[in-house]
Each structure stands twice: as C-alpha cells, then as structure tokens.
Amino acid sequence: MAEKRNVNGAPPAGNASGGNAYTIDLNTFSRRLQAMYTHWRQHKDEYWGSSDVLAVATPPPSEDLRYLKSSALNIWLLGYEFPETIMVFADKHIHFLCSQKKASLLEVVKKSAKETVGVDVVMHVKAKNDNGSNQMDSILRAIRPKSDHAAPTVGYISREAPEGKLLEIWTDKLKGSGLTLSDISNGLSDLFAVKDKNEITCIKKAAYLTACAMKNFVVPKVEKVIDEEKKVTHASLMDDTEKAILDPVKIGVKLRAENVDICYPPIFQSGGNFDLRPSASSNDDYLYYDSSSVIICAIGSRYNSYCSNVARTYLIDSNAVQSKAYEVLLKAHEAAILALKPGNRISSVYEAAVAVVEREAPELVPNLTKSAGTGIGLEFRESGLSLNAKNERVLKAGMVFNVSLGFQNLQAKTSNPKSENFSLLLADTVIVTDDGRDVATSASSKSVKDVAYSFNEDEEEEEQPKVKPASMAKDAIFSKATLRSDNGEISKEELRKQHQAELARQKNEETARRLAGVESGSGDGRASVRAASDLIAYKSVNELPPPREMMIQVDQKNEAILLPIYGSMVPFHVATVKTVSSQQDTNRNCYIRIIFNVPGTPFTPHDANSLKNQGAIYLKEVSFRSKDPRHISEVVQLIKTLRRNVMARESERAERATLVTQEKLVLAGNKFKPIRLHDLWIRPTFGGRARKLTGTLEAHMNGFRYSTSRADERVDVMYGNIKHAFFQPAEKEMITLLHFHLHNHIMVGNKKTKDVQFYVEVMEMVQNIGGGKRSAYDPDEIEEEQRERDRKNKINMDFQHFVNRVNDLWGQPQFKGLDLEFDQPLRELGFHGVPYKASAFIVPTSSCLVELIETPFLVISLSDIEIVNLERVGLAQKNFDMAIVFKDFKRDVMRIDSIPSSSLDGIKEWLDTTDIKYYESRLNLNWRPILKTIMDDPQQFIEEGGWEFLNLEATDSDSDNSAESDQGYEPSDVEPESDSEDDDSDSESLVESEDEEEDSEADSEEEKGKTWEELEREASNADREKGNESDSEDERRRRKMKATGKARAGPSSAASKRMKFR
After folding, report:
1. What angle do CA 210, 215, 218 make, to 5 degrees?
2. In the β-sheet with 560-565, what is the strand arrangement from edge to edge?
3. What separation in angstroms does the CA of 407 have from each of 189, 452, 958?
4. What 8-state DSSP symbol labels residue 794?
5. Which of 3, 191, 198, 270 has the fewest CB atoms within 10 Å of its CB?
6. Residue 602: its pLDDT value, please?
7. What number of other Cβ atoms are within 10 A of residue 498's Cβ?
8. Pairing relation of β-strands 293-303 and 306-316?
9. What's the sign of the alpha-carbon dihedral 201, 206, 207, 209?
10. What is the 3-class SS of 732-791, one letter each residue?
C-alpha cells in the first residue's frame, strides 16, 4: 500500500482559511442543489422515505479506503469532502455544523442557495475543543414542528455507523429527539445514478488511467516476470501497480498525481486460489505461470474521487476447457455490454449474458457470477444499480456501470492441483450514452489473441509423447509481445513473429476442426458424371436420304456420315467419330481412315449411351480406298468441320447445363431511373468475327445489365451472385475498370466465366510515325499530354460517380444481407509476380488479392486462404515465390512466382495485419502429395503439429533432437516411395531439412537447388583435380560468362522450370 493516500476529495486543511487553496464551483453547486431539491420533492415517498428533513453527517478523515454516501454527497454538491461536518437540509433552511475554517469556506454558498431553491444557509460554528452539543440542540429546535404542525420525518443514512465523538453525540441526540427517522440511501443512490457532463469527464479520465495502467504496466510487468521466470508474489505486484497508478506520468498518462487515487488495492490471483468478489485481496503466494495456469488481474483508479475499474484474465498455455470457457465468457461479457442502452431494464443486461452462456455452454451456467456488475461513480458500488436478474429499473443515458462477469470454481482436466481449479473474470467501465454505450476502458484489450499466451515447458509433453518435436516451435514463445530488447523496446519483426506464433496455434485448431468435419462426411468428393443426352441422327429408316452412289456421304442437316458397308449405306452420328485422316500411297491410291469412340479405350469420355448398351458390339475403325484424291480430301474436310461444330455446340450446352439458375433481372421502372455508365468494353468478349462494339452498363432493381447495339450481346449480373466488386481507377495503367467476381458461373457469349469486367481505355493508342524526336517543350506535345490527363480524370470521375450511386443503392435495407460494396485495390501494398505465364502487378484489397489488368484475372478471397508459404526465401536470391494453400485441400495450390525480394517485408507485414499465417522455406514444395497425405490421415497431421512442419525456425532448433523431424509432413526426394503421379516430372520440387543440406552436399539431387555460382566453383575444383589447370584466364572468363548467361536465361532443371522474368 502507498504510504500517502489522496483521501476523498482532498478535505480542506489549515491553509484553506483564506479560501485560496479550495474554492467551491458555485455554478455546479447551484445546479446540483436544485437537482437535489427537485428530486427530493418529486420522489419524496418513493426514494426518500417520506422525509421532511435530510440530515447528513460526515465522519473524520481516514487513511482507509471507504465509500460513504455522506462523503459522496459532499463531493457531489460542494466539490470536496468536509470531514466532521453535519448538514441538515430543510424546506426553508440549510444548516451546517462545522469548524470555523470550514464555515469560512462555505460562506460563499449562501447567496447561491437563496437564489436557486429559496433557502437560507445557517452556519453553526463549533469551537476547536467544543463537542458541538449546543449547536446540535439549536439545529433540532429549528427543525422541530410548531404547535400547529405535525412532527417532521428526519431522513438520515442508517447504514453508516457513527465515527468520532461529534457523530456519536449527533446520532444519540437525533434518536433521542422523538422525531421519526427514515433511511434516505435509495434517494441519494438515484440522485447520483445519472451523471452530468463533468462527472462523465472525470470517469473517462479515471478509466483511461486504469486501462493504461493495465496495458502499459501490468501486462508488461507480468510478461517480464514470466519471460525471465522470476518468483514474484501477488502482494509485490499489487504494491508496484499501486505506485504506478499514483504516479500517472510513469505509465504515459498526463494527469496530476494529486487528483488520482486507487479504488482498491490491485488484485492479482493465480495458482488455483481465486476470489471474484471486489473485496478480494492479493496474497503472499508467488505468481503461478506454468502450463494451463490462469492469472486474474483487477485494478481500479479514481480521478477527482470518481471511480473506474477493469479486470482481465490471462491464459498461459491454456487447454481446451479453459479456452472454451474464456471464449464463452468473452461473448457473454460483450452481450451484457451491448444490452446497456437507454430504455432497457437493468435485468436485461444480466439476462443477455446468461442467454449466451446457456446457448454456448449450458454446463457453465451454475458457475456464472450472480450479477453482471454494479453502477459506479463516486462510490465503487452504487446501491440500487446492481446488474442482476431482479433489478427492474430502467437504464438512462448518463449512467455508468462496472460490467463485471466471471466464471468461478471451474475444473480443468489437469493433474496439477494449482491449475486444476480455475476462475475467469472480465470487467470494464461502461458509460450509457444517448445512442448506446461507450466502453471507457477499451484501451485494455480482452480479445483471445491478446490474453492467451503459449509458453510450453518440456516436462508437460509427457502426456503427449507422440507429438513431433518440430511442432514445438511455439516453445517458449508468447502469443504476443513478450520478448524485448535491452532498451525495453520491441522490434516490428519480433511483434510479427509473436503474432504469427499465435496465428499458427489458431490455424492448427481451426484446421483440426475442419478436417474432423470433412472426415465424418461420406463420398469420394468427385462430382457425379453428367448423363449425356442421346445423340440421334435418324429416328427411323424412312428418314435416311435416298441412296445415290455407293460412296461416303456427309449429311450436314442431320449431323451424320453415311458409310457404304456390305452394299448398304450405314449412318453414324458425327459425334461418334474420334478422328478422321487420309493418305496416299505410291500407286496413286487414296485411303480414308475413320476411328470411332469406343468404350474402354484410353482418353474416351464416358457416354451414357455406352453405359446403356454394355453388351453391344462396336465398330472401332473403318478404312476406304479411292482413286479420287479430290473427293477424299473434300470428305475429310466436311467431316472435320461438322464434327468441330457439333462438339463446340455440345460443349457449350454442357457448360450451360452446369450453370446455377439465376433469378430474372427486374428492370428499374417508375421507382428510380437506372444508373448508367456508357461506352464500356467487356471482358471476356462476346466472341465472333464481327467488329467489337462498346456497350452500356445499367444498375437495375436486382442486378446489372450490359448490352451493346446488337440484340444478342447482352449480359445480366445479379447482385445476389456477386461475391466481390472492385473499382480500379487508372493510375499507371491504361484502363479504368469495374470488376465483378461471382459466386456462380455465367455465360458471356459462349464462354463460361466467374469474372466479368467492364473497362474504358483512358489513353488512345497513338503511334508517332514521323520519325523525329519531339521536344519536351513542344506546345503540341504539352497540349496532348494535358488532354490525356483531362480524359483520364474525367473517366475516373465518371466511374467514381457510378460506384458511389451503386454503393448507395446497395446500402438500402433489402440488400443488407448481401454485404456488397465496391472495393478498391491498395496500390501501395502491391508487388510484381508471375501468377500464370506473364509478369503482373498484384494488388491486395481489404478482402482479396487481385490482378485485374492482364488475363486470366487473379481474384483470391482472403477468407479462402488456409496458409501462405513463401518459398526460395534467403540464400541471396533476388526473387522468391508465394504458394497459397486454400482451406479446400482439393483445390490446387495457387503459385505466384518470381516476386522481387525487395517486396518480402511488405508482403509479410500485409499477411500479418490480415491475420494470415505464413511460413518461409528455402526451396519449393511439391504440394499435391503434401495435401494428399493430409487428407488421407488428418489425425496424424494434427498430432504431429499441423502446419508447424513448415516452420523453418522450428526445424533449425529441433533437428538435432529427434529423428522424426525429417518424417511425416516434410516430403523429400529421398523418400523410397511416393503416391504422387508427378514424382517423375522434371518440375518436381525439393524439400530438405537443414541436417540433410549439411550432411548431403554430395547428393546429386540436392544440386538442383544450388546456384550457378556454386556449380561453377565445383566445376573448377573438379577440373583442377583432373589436371586441367592449364586453362587460360580468357577461357575461364568465357566459361563464366556462358554460365552467367544460362543463369539469366533460367535453368531448365527441375528446381526452377517455371518462367523467370527480369
């Protein structure tokens, strides 16, 4: 405890006689005195016990922390606590019994009291050695009734026991006066419940001090204790925290120390002994922070006597029971806070919290605290404002609550008695506002990622002997900022690493849950084969064309070919033809060879007709000879053309059959005029050989319509089918565009697509063929550049206007469920890379990673990403690759190659801020067998640490400790067998541990990953051993230049077969 305490309101001392040290704010006094009398007169019977007179006596000063309504009334009305002072409020008079010094300070209120409520202030001055008995008699005579009036009821605070000789005499005289006495505690509580602007300001300052003390002192202090494995008692932490609160400057809060105080001695609890009551205290036990331990910290501070409170629970390497309980408590606490809004009943706050617990974890309801907190202000616990299920009072703007909720006496499934029993507690100071609530202590985070720490110790792994050592990369790593440099600061890289460690834990838990759900499902995941429609050339023999010569005929109307076989013309639908070819021999004979689709042959698509007629005999191949090469060539050409047209039509029909049925577009009618954007091009194009035309994009009731002047060139995009909408103005590009990424495919012309883009070229493609170089000061050149800038700005503004109007449309209530809004790429976060075959500038948005200029487009939703692996990082590489693994493991991994190394830090920072877990590796991975292994045995994947096999640092630190670190989910070329069909491919990737790289330098497989400089050095050494040291310097330089040229062209080896871009 601090030796010197700022007692409530800093009572007037001896130097206050002149009135200089303490001055009463007369405006505040007048306003609150009027409010008090008004409340008293209006609610006399309801809250004030039908009192005609109010008598309030304050005790002598004390160093103890105490909350008295008498002191609260002093501070609320006068701005200070006046110890050993008796105040009596009557209808016509206010009596003060106090010392001379206090009376001189109170003189200033006489005029204000008279003007405000029409009462006279009477001072009864008590001499220093006088017990005040005569003055008390004078007051009692003044309030006694006249002969024709009934005896008045005197209201007093019955729960406050008299302290000191003055108050004891006053209480005896009051009780012996024969007057009726009544308790006025409820009246004072209701009077203090709604705070004015000045009170709210004081509470906000107190709350800010409390939150900063937790954030800037308590959390770093506890983290340092755990990080350095110190033995510190709860009481010691309490003392240090109290000193920090009483010296706000040290924790970065610019408040004067004389105005602040603690609400109660800070509470620190751990090691299985928990008490969630505000009266709890910090004992002399050491802070316990081993595995599955829980630490509760609660602190409260005051500013100008107004209280605030915050409590947080910190989880150290929590188990499943503790994590779930905390998540439920956090949701319940948030629900209680959200229920704090004007007009609600106080009971609804606790009921909202209970409803969450009953829904999420009904078994925890008996352990929930019996209330969700109390009102807070001049008193730490304001009576009458308890947030329990029985309080039916109505919430009003200006009320302030300490929303405190917890689970007590929970049991964790651990063998350690100090962590078996645990409790959880969360508390915040919340102000009820006109439109909701304001969490004044929000600066102290309570989210899971900020309170859950991972700090595994080796001895705790005895319960899980099968866990792969490489998965323990999180050993001795906090999930948030704990490791600091010597100067007390923490680097951005360390912060990122610690956040990534927490993301790894969360990602492994999420993947485990998802894989468990997939494993319980049925089926092989393959889509059922669509039954093809029966292709019939002729329904009956009568439809056959009349026989002509016995020669091959092509019936284009019925899409058939007629072949002469044994004297009859036999028809075949052209779709049954696989290939047709012709050739000529030396005798000038021509041959035509027709091969049909036959069930059972490789690469033959499944056909429903073949499944129906499994016992049928099929014609596989037929050949004809002819002396007329011109006729043979004509027939082959006709068959090929007809077959190509039929197959294209059937392919389009098949694609359309897989489309999800879209709702019909509702055109904008009389309600509003459609929003239009003119002269747009579309991608993908409609196709065909006709000249491309621009069109108009219109926003209607439930979707967009794009149409050109041609009747058949029209595309409807429904709002409900839009997954992401992008607007990218032209900056360094040649086009301004709107791009829609869809949930389901649509047809644009005869193309099936999920991405539709509308764009305008902002600069005309002009080529100067004059041959001469134009001057930068040429007026025509300057004018042309100005026109281009004006054109670009106008197009961008037109697009922006269209986007704003559509966003307003999407903001209407009927579209709330779609959650649509145009997203704009963040160019400053962009980077160059090769997502497909060409280099492109890839840009993140708030919800996606996109490349919208080059085709094919790249749109990756961040919510679909499982992890990102940054490959070929380090080793003095100029470029690296990014492998994006999706949550759907059946989906191919997306690779973005040849990203400049200068973009590495920016990409890491972006991934970290978007809560995407990333790993780094020195070589490329072959992802297909990895994902296949995970899906084949998800349980083993989880048991061996999940994605932590990608953690390069963990592999470095643990490779010496276990032989298992090279097994499991680290595929390597040295494995004896592989299920992947790509094992023999030249593009197979390598993944090897650090031990393998150190011990197997002579391994030829590893040489695929060496740089050309290393290969050149090894070749030179080999030449020396063979005696070829006589090569001239020119020859060696020429060989080096040749090797460098190969390196620039890109090696053709398996290690990097992908295209390189410089």
Report:
1. 85
2. 553-555, 560-565, 568-573
3. 28, 17, 39
4. H
5. 3
6. 58
7. 20
8. antiparallel
9. positive
10. CCCEEEEEEEEEEEEEECCEEEEEEEEEEECCCCCCCCCCCCCCCCCHHHHHHHHHHHHH
**Which segments of 385-442 does DSSP mark as H helices, in order?**
417-420
pLDDT at 345 over 90: yes
Cβ atoms 360, 288 nearer than 8 A: no
Q: DSSP for 562-607? A: EEEETTEEEEEEGGGEEEEEEEE-TTS-EEEEEEE--TTSTTPPP-
Phi, psi values for residue 214, rounded to 5°: -70, -45
- Confidence band of 59 (pLDDT split at 50, 70, 90): very high
C-alpha to C-alpha distance for 371 and 382, rounded to whole angstroms: 14
Q: Are 682 and 695 within 8 A, CB to CB? A: yes
Cβ 195 vs Cβ 373: under 8 Å = no
User: What is the maximum span of the chain, computed from C-alpha positions, in angstroms?
Assistant: 151
**Predicted pLDDT at 990:** 33
Contact in structure between 866 and 511 (CB atoms under 8 Å): yes
pLDDT for the residue 770: 52
3-state secondary structure of 27: helix
The string over 527-555, giving b where at least 16 C-beta atoms fall within 10 Å of a residue's C-beta and e elsewhere, is eeeeebeebebeeeeeebeeeeeeebbbb
The Cα 1057–Cα 262 span in angstroms is 68
Task: Note the pLDDT tens digit of each residue in 952-984.
Answer: 665 444 444 443 433 333 333 334 443 434 444
> Peptide bond before 571: cis, by omega within 30 degrees of 0?
no
Question: What would the DSSP string read from start to end of 160-215?
Answer: S---HHHHHHHHHHHHTS--EEEE-HHHHHHHHHS--HHHHHHHHHHHHHHHHIII
Distance CA 393, CA 758 (A): 58
Q: What is the mean pLDDT of the chain?
A: 80
Per-residue pLDDT band for 604 (boundaries 50, 70, 90) equals low
Our measurement of the distance from residue 896's CA atom to the centroid of its chain's CA atoms, rounded to an integer in Å, reads: 24
Type of residue numbered 1042: K
- 538-594: per-residue pLDDT in tens? 878 777 887 777 888 888 888 889 888 888 888 888 888 888 988 887 777 888 999
pLDDT band at 773 (very low <50, low <70, confident <90, very high): low
Q: Give the global pTM.
A: 0.48
pLDDT digits (tens, 9 = 90+) for 158-174: 888 888 899 999 999 88
**What is the C-alpha to C-alpha distance for residues 689 and 159, in angstroms, rounded to an integer?**
95
Q: Which of 302, 304, 300 is nearest to 279 (CA)?
A: 300
Nearest partner of 332 among 297, 300, 359, 299, judged by Cα: 359
| Other C-beta atoms lying within 10 Å of the C-beta of residue 686 | 19
How would residue 309 be classed by pLDDT, with cut points 50, 70 and 90?
very high
